[in-house]
Amino acid sequence: MDTIEIFLNKLSSEKELYDELSSKLECGSITEKSKLSAVLSDWNKDIGFKLFISDENISNETVDEIIKAFHECKNISCETVTDEFLNVIGENERITHLSKPRSLIHRDGDLHPTVHVWIVKRKDMGIFVLLQKRASEKEIYPDCYDVSVAGHVSQGMEFRKTAVKEAYEEIGIEIPAGKLAHIGNRRISHSSEKINDNEMSAIYIYRENVDINDLVLQKSEVSEVCWAEIDEILAAMKTENFPNCISIDELSMIKKTLF
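Request: output the structure for the sequence above.
Response:
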């Protein structure tokens, strides 16, 4: 059965939500629940619906009434999915107002914003970075060593605020936004049978003293953390005994910034 994907964004206005329905259903202007119900009652049963609802913890009466209209119509096939919505990045590498569910962003390969935070420290023997080991449940690169903190920028959020939020959620550290130093942006791509990931990531470093014994790890994301010297990481990356998804480019950015 063919399926029409409809985005019910809780941050959208009533007009924007009904414009989405009018566009996807291709049946003229829909401006209220009664018109939607009438359209659905005459719908072709060979085409179903998948409603993607943004995951913000807020109420939106229009979203609720649209969902109710679909559920009240017994002659259609309808699935509802709650998902994080991400803004799409345009050709000029700027964040647009267009947002899509994260699962579809990863399916379709849309360029979208993420953040990487490297926690670093200088010692006599060199530059050390905090590595996290990704949890075995992760969809991509499970059980691999990675950047200290990383995450997607949800719709309407800023890069720096996201970096602060992800640091607290993943490893339990409270980083003041002003202590994050932005050292550049980087395009990141990864394709497999499961995902078509295409990111524009803002790269930050955090140079305050961090005791890893004080960190509280989000077990669904991070299994462990450790300190490692950059040149030793680069040497280990040449072997097959160091499972990782670390970017050599980002390590070079850190060295260039700190030397």
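The chain is about 25% helix and 35% strand.
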